[in-house]
Design a protein that fits this description.
Blueprint: H1 2-14, H2 16-29, H3 33-47, H4 50-94, H5 118-143, H6 149-154, H7 157-170, H8 181-194, H9 202-212, H10 216-227, H11 241-249, H12 255-266, H13 268-272, H14 276-283
Helix pairs in contact: 1-4, 2-3, 7-8, 9-10
Length: about 280
Amino acid sequence: MFKNKQIKIKNTREKCCLIRDVLFKLVETSDDPKIKGKVDCLTTYELENFEFLLGMTIWYDIIFVVNSVSKNLQMYRENGFENALIFAKEIAFKMDVESKFCEKHINYKKKQFDESVENEIVKSIQESFRCRFEQFKLYESIFHFLFSIKNLKSLNCVLLKEKCLNLEKSLKHDKLLDLDDLNLFSELNILKEIIGLENDKLIDILNCIKRINSSPNAYIAYRIMLTIPISITSTKRSFSKHKLTKTYLRSTMSQQRLNGLTLLSIEKDMLNEINYDNLIDNFA
């Protein structure tokens, strides 16, 4: 932060005359009276003000000193503690003192039988979120450059090649490869010029690649990215429509009636062939 301020003040101080000349030229060439007034005021009352020039010079000297101190403090944060620790260990060795930190005793509160376990629930939720976000971060680190055409265009050849190599390694299983990094690099270089920025959604990019039908590695990469699960699936979930329907209706129907309705639905073709009048007469 101080480094940026120092650079700005330094440039202003060294090129003050040039800045004033540029502002004078802007006043002469501009047709907007509002701009002319602001620039003329800035030139007259700021740049040509001795107090401003003196304050700028003093401020530069102060920032220069503060920046040097800040750098030294940052260096101590990175390396100073390790050096201090080594020096302290040497003194402790000479004094025959064990060089270790005292461990604080943690008092565990005994739980009562009727005590609320909200803290455990919160910890479980936090752990679940932590796992989810770690999976999201891993997913983003591998596939981020494919998220949009804009991302592809922002990468130079060296970075794009590194991303493709990283993707190949991530999808590799033993000696089996899902795609080739060099071929993927060549295909993406062509696709980022062909596919327009209006295709912002991933599914649109995948459809464009499918229509072009000349980039198999890119097609595989986008298919994997769009179908990979990034959420933990440790909880049991039922995806059976039959079970979901029974669960929904169980509150108002008995199990026997639900089983009967299920059987009627399965044997629908045979049910359509039954003559209900004859069935009622026979039953009566």
